[in-house]
Write a structure and sequence with these properties.
Jelly Rolls; single chain
């Protein structure tokens, strides 16, 4: 059992180091790295002897370099070779992007509710790394964080292949009919059943890994006519940011009478799809589906009385399965535990491989998208800052065991 100090989220408190290492690797690593490229471009004469080699690099990040995302990089580097008779230089200016990105990142547990002392089974599916086109060679870990942030567990997930007979939809449903996990498809439907009626938020809030932004207004959880908890949207609309890109997003909305609604899907700042729902005299529930490559945000245009019932995300592509178990303590903290998935590249190059080929594989680079921008702030000591937070991949509930019945 691991105990962490009481910071905002103790699962990861070395974000800056992770960002820096990943960004430097993204800028400098290539099929041929800057050092080797410089050597090839400044070949000395046969009678010259190299005395010294240096590489100087400048990296500009137009946006926050979140690991696991294809962030752009402006890279300038200069290789300098000093021989016993002269100095030669080779300079390059290029635009690059982080290649260590996966299309599928998903973590579930075998159930949503556990009693103290029970075993939690974690199942993860990870897509192929865009750089190596492999998903079977990651170092994968999961973490579970208690409601108070005073107790956390970390565990290693190991690759596994489910027998064909067990690769049914029911095998990986997380106990929910709308939650499907197969090796080629992830479909996850989320509602607000664990939220509290009357709870409101005015700033960006992360719920089950998705970031909901009421755009400066107020969103509130309310009960509908059937007693289900839904999210009442502000008149100015709502923006939903996804932790990893999706290929399809489906929204279930409750529309007031005589009100239309427009839902837009964006990949970055580019609109990839939209669904315009005309007004109805009676209102009622509407299902709006958006499809496109790399959907990262969904914007619901504002309408008074609009309510969000459910959001479903779909991601496709080749994936690999990983699994691990966690034994809960008999005195475990009760409540909603957040879960997190992390994966890094692994250097599994066999001995005897050509060093130039072996150098193309770098271990320890993060491929999962775990962080998001949490807004700006000003501090009297540290000045202006960009706040980074970590997004949960899911959650499960821990409850007290039922007392034994004495007859």
């Amino acid at each position: 059992m691991l105990h962490y100090r009481g910071v905002d989220n103790p699962v990861v408190d070395v974000a800056a180091a992770v960002f820096a290492a990943a960004a430097i690797a993204a800028a400098a690593s290539d099929r041929i790295d800057p050092h080797r490229r410089g050597q090839d471009a400044t070949l000395p004469a046969s009678d010259e002897r190299t005395l010294k080699e240096t590489v100087a690099m400048s990296i500009d990040y137009p946006e926050i370099p979140f690991p696991g995302t294809p962030y752009p990089l402006h890279v300038d580097w200069t290789y300098r070779r000093q021989t016993d008779s002269r100095v030669m230089e080779h300079s390059v200016r290029e635009e690059k992007s982080n290649p260590h990105v996966i299309g599928v990142q998903h973590l579930i547990t075998d159930r949503t509710v556990y009693e103290r002392g029970q075993t939690v089974t974690f199942i993860a599916v990870l897509g192929a790394d865009a750089y190596s086109d492999r998903c079977d060679s990651f170092f994968v870990t999961a973490a579970a964080l208690s409601p108070s942030h005073q107790r956390a567990y970390k565990l290693i997930l190991r690759p596994f292949a489910a027998p064909l007979a067990q690769r049914s939809v029911a095998t990986f449903t997380h106990g929910e009919p709308g939650h499907v996990l197969e090796q080629g498809l992830v479909r996850r439907c989320l509602d607000f059943g664990r939220q509290k009626v009357g709870d409101a938020f005015h700033a960006r809030r992360v719920i089950d890994g998705l970031s909901y932004d009421p755009l400066g207004a107020s969103a509130r959880f309310v009960a509908d006519s059937a007693g289900s908890i839904v999210l009442a949207l502000p008149a100015g609309g709502l923006e939903i940011s996804l932790p990893t890109p999706a290929t399809a997003v489906t929204l279930r909305l409750e529309l007031p009478a005589n009100e239309s609604v427009t839902v837009r899907a964006l990949s970055g700042d580019a609109e990839v799809d939209r669904d315009d729902r005309p007004a109805s005299n009676d209102g009622g529930e509407a299902t709006q589906q958006l499809r496109g490559t790399g959907i990262t945000r969904v914007v619901v245009d504002g309408r008074r009385g609009l309510r969000l019932v459910q959001i479903c995300l779909e991601r496709g592509g080749r994936g690999c399965l990983y699994r691990g178990t966690l034994n809960l303590a008999t005195d475990e903290e009760t409540g909603s535990w957040s879960t997190y998935l992390f994966a890094q590249t692994r250097n599994d190059v066999a001995l005897g491989i050509d060093p130039l080929v072996a150098a193309e594989t770098i271990g320890g680079l993060p491929v999962t998208n775990n962080f998001f921008f949490a807004g700006d702030s000003d501090n009297i000591t540290y000045g202006h800052a960009c706040n980074i937070d970590i997004a949960a991949d899911g959650a499960f509930e821990v409850v007290a065991a039922d007392p034994a019945v004495i007859g």
